[in-house]
Amino acid sequence: MNTSAQTSIRFLDSGEAALTVELGSIISEDINRQVIALGEALAMRDLKGVEEIIPTYRSLLVLYDPLHLSRDALCLAVNEIWPHINVLRETGRRWAIPVCYGGEHGIDLEEVAQRHGMSPEELIARHSGATYRVYMIGFTPGFAYLGGLPQEIHTSRRNEPRARVPPRSILIGGKQAGICPPMEIPSGWHLLGQTPVRSYDPRRSDRPFLFEPGDIVRFKPITPEEYREMCAAAEAGEEVAKPEP
Questions:
Q1: In whole angstroms, how far apart are CA 241 and each of 49, 114, 196, 226, 232?
Q2: Share of the chain above pLDDT 90, in %
Q3: How many CB atoms lie within 10 A of CB 148?
Q4: C-alpha to C-alpha distance for 163 and 152, rounded to whole angstroms
Q5: CA–CA separation, 114 vs 70, rounded Å?
Q6: pTM of the model
Q7: CA–centroid distance for 200 within its chain
Q8: Distance CA 27, CA 238 (A)
Q9: CA nearest to 47, candidates 73, 13, 79, 14
Q10: pLDDT in tens, 123-177
């Protein structure tokens, strides 16, 4: 089922060669669907000078070459496309992502559980029992920002961010959840576990980023032994998570 876009848009300059097309001011699945649809429609226009189109929670970042495409021409193209796009209600690919929770893999699990007055097992059940939407990819290569974290485990960010978070960490911060790439990154979010899945892998030349905005993610608890085995397989180049049929 399709529905036409209704949200008003706003153009914001992001330097001399980038334009932000803002579709809203809140985190909303409907707005994110519109962002993705607008990006796809603009890509199909194949405008000379457009170099990259990046969907985010509530806006679209368009990188362009001003020597080949003026800002006014880009805005005109977006304004021509916008009222006529169709926003697909269907979602993207569905993933079951294995996670080894707690212990050395998720050093904040017990503290977060205690904060919410529940056991670590209850927190794992809440986290792994939810369905998440990939809203955007950003910050570092392959970092997936997820919406859908159950309200009962919304957790404000750490007062003191960590300079180094282990590779492939599974995080929560505020009402967001995240999947880290296979590299250390700084973060102020809380560490609940680690996944063997590589959300970024340059060996996948056709698709180095595993997830795309609009994909649906569920988490599946695994044991430390399963985690080690799957990590070894992933490092050897095996895909340890594939889209569900």
A1: 36, 31, 9, 13, 13
A2: 86
A3: 17
A4: 28
A5: 54
A6: 0.90
A7: 12
A8: 35
A9: 73
A10: 999 999 999 999 999 989 999 999 999 999 999 999 999 999 999 999 999 999 9
Quote the tokens at residue 125: 């059940």
Termini Cα distance of the chain: 21
223 touches 138 (CB < 8 A): no
Q: Are 9 and 23 in contact (CB under 8 A)?
A: yes
Average pLDDT over residues 70-96: 87
Give CA–CA dist 176/150, Å, rounded.
9
Burial annotation 203-223 (CB, 10 A radius, 16+ → b, else e) = eeeeeeebbebbbbbebebbe
Longest dimension (CA), the chain: 59
Dihedral angle sign, alpha carbons of residues 237, 240, 241, 245: positive
Rounded distance, CA 187 to CA 184, Å?
Answer: 10
Q: In this structure, are residues 179 and 97 in contact, taking their beta carbons and an 8 Å threshold?
A: yes
- Please give the average per-residue pLDDT across 110-127, as a whole number: 98
- In the block, which residue shows the tokens 């005109």? 76
Number of C-alpha atoms within 13 angstroms, CB side, residue 168? 23
Distance (Å, whole) CA 180 – CA 88: 28
CA distance 207 to 194: 22
Q: Which residues 6+ apart lie within 8 Å of 15 measured at CB?
A: none
